[in-house]
């Protein structure tokens, strides 16, 4: 529990007699937050915080991260315990509703998700409009946004029941749409979902099955997939979640908001990193080339990042990366893969980086994406689907955060300010008069 005192911060505008007392808002865990909402009205100034590193944009009860201690809690439960003992559907219920479900609630919730796994047949036609070589994230972004053109009965965000159905639809349909994006890219027929399978099994089934033969989901792979989904399910106010909240703050419908989240996730600094890690390892080629690559990363002029390393919040270790690394070893062992050069190279890279002052002094550690790509590759998932898989898992987090925001009576449209450093007011001149 937080042992910081209640109180306030006094902010004084030097050279004037103006000051304000910014009350400290107490968190249940973690540092208090100075409420500066009166700053402009009372002192005439804004705060400048590019990247929002010091700004709490909302109050939330969903996920807690302590970046110094490497702690991640979903609704208070440590990620290690959930990854070990829970599963994705139960975690989804937890994120959405705040408590672990009873057996009856869990059954009801599962039913709610599975009865929405199919998509409107007309949606299949969307795919034909895309080039076969389109990145599946481009396709996913488009088709998830298009859901708002199909499910008109869930666009009224003020209706609690409509919000609930939209949540079910998104959690249930995003894997179907993601698998369809993959099937389209390889020219195979779409595979309808199977509601007798678990969430992870069904996703693997839709990705891998073909009508010509029977496909049995490998239970080892399904377990690993489920754990990967749990690890990626939510991560408080990261770039894509903040994007979902910002879009949602305007009253936009949930499908449009989640499409916005998918777009934000795609970037290599965020969810696109898992794909970028594999690309990086492939380019490095062999362990002998690692020192030269590390030197390049340390050279500011080279503009090269060690992908899968560093995090805005984690400055000690990313607890998800630790579980991911263990899972990686487990999956490779269970699949009988004794020698995986990519894993050997990743571990060597981690060893070298963690003993190098550049990374130590900047507190750069492997993040969740460093090992996830290696597991996914071993599972036969194509590289272009890595970020898509992240989106499938994160959909429940986005939906939970969106729902929490809509239900917060203090919610206002998100509207950051700026420091304007452009030209001051000047008069328009006709083109002939311009020098
Ligand atoms: N490789 C090399 N140097 C790095 C890296 C890296 N991966 N990450 C940060 N740095 C350096 C950065 O150049 C800066 O150095 P200096 O102080 O000399 O200017 C210092 O470390 C602080 O970095 P920052 O840019 O202020 O950190 P940030 O909080 O703005 O960025 C980050 C966080 C995750 C975007 C960044 O670490 C990064 O680009 N990492 C690689 C991409 C990646 O793995 N992303 C996945 C994040 S976890 C999953 C997710 O959230 O989606």
Explain what you see:
With 435 residues, the chain is mainly alpha-helical. Helix content is 49%, strand content 6%. The protein contains 18 helices and 6 strands. The chain has helices at 39-43, 79-85, 88-97, 103-114, 123-128, 136-146, 160-186, 199-208, 219-232, 239-248, 254-265, 273-284, 290-298, 319-334, 341-354, 357-361, 368-378, 386-406, and strands spanning 8-12, 19-25, 33-34, 63-66, 71-74, 77-78. The strands form 2 sheets. A 3-stranded antiparallel β-sheet has the order 1-2-3. A 3-stranded antiparallel β-sheet has the order 4-5-6. A hairpin with a 4-residue loop joins strand 4 (63-66) and strand 5. Helix 7 runs antiparallel to helix 18 and helix 8 (199-208) crosses helix 9 (219-232). It is globular and about 80 Å long. The model has no long low-confidence stretch (mean pLDDT 95). Bound molecules: carboxymethyl coenzyme *A (CMC). Residues 51, 238, 269-271, 273, 297, 305-312, 362, 364, 367-369 line the site of carboxymethyl coenzyme *A. The site of carboxymethyl coenzyme *A has 20 residues, from helix 17.
Secondary structure elements and pairings:
Layout: E1 8-12, E2 19-25, E3 33-34, H1 39-43, E4 63-66, E5 71-74, E6 77-78, H2 79-85, H3 88-97, H4 103-114, H5 123-128, H6 136-146, H7 160-186, H8 199-208, H9 219-232, H10 239-248, H11 254-265, H12 273-284, H13 290-298, H14 319-334, H15 341-354, H16 357-361, H17 368-378, H18 386-406
Helix pairs in contact: 2-9, 3-18, 6-7, 6-11, 7-8, 7-18, 8-9, 9-14, 9-17, 9-18, 10-11, 10-18, 11-18, 12-17, 14-17
Carboxymethyl coenzyme *A is lined by residues 51, 238, 269-271, 273, 297, 305-312, 362, 364, 367-369.
